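Task 17 of the worksheet. Students: predict the tertiary structure of the chain below and write it out as structure tokens. Keep your answer in the requested format; marks are given for formatting as well as content.
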Amino acid sequence: MNSLVSGIIASLTTATALGAAIVWFSGKATEKTLDVIVARIQKDLNVAENRRNLLVKSSLDFKSQQLNEFYWPIYSRLQKDNAVWNRILDKRSSDERLKNIAKEIESRVVLPNHDEIVQIIQTKIHLAQASPELQKALMQYVRHVAVYRAMRAAGDDDRFPIALGEVWPDELFVLVERKTKQLQGELDIMLAKALKDGE
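Model answer:
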């Protein structure tokens, strides 16, 4: 009987040890599998976070480029035109002094300013993402300046492009101002969010 009990105890001990070993090994295997799964999830999360950060940075960079290279330069130059435009009309004045000042303003301020805006439009239009209405006004402006320049080159110093049917795009300033402020607002919000997320 002792030998039977000893055999049973030995079998139970072996079975228990074997069961414990199986549980231990399967626990280790499960732990290893979980470690691999957690590492994969962490890697996927890092990739997703990096992708999101890259998209945010690209969007910030593009909006900044739109503003710095297209909208703000055009907007500030249009503001300059608005500030001096009435002085040009003095070219029609009977006062010789006002006439001369108007010619100087036109040749040294307005026409170079127009040339700079046209240069920006021609070289940076890809940054505009302009509405059809703004696109039309920009192209009308380019035509207006081309006719204005041609008139002055031909010695027609007293008339303006409207005399040849090339009207000034009245809505241009408002459209550029609106788009500039819209983009600046979007950029400010994105920057604030990016800074907050970085904390």
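Marker's comment: The radius of gyration is 37 Å. DSSP finds four helices and no strands in the chain.
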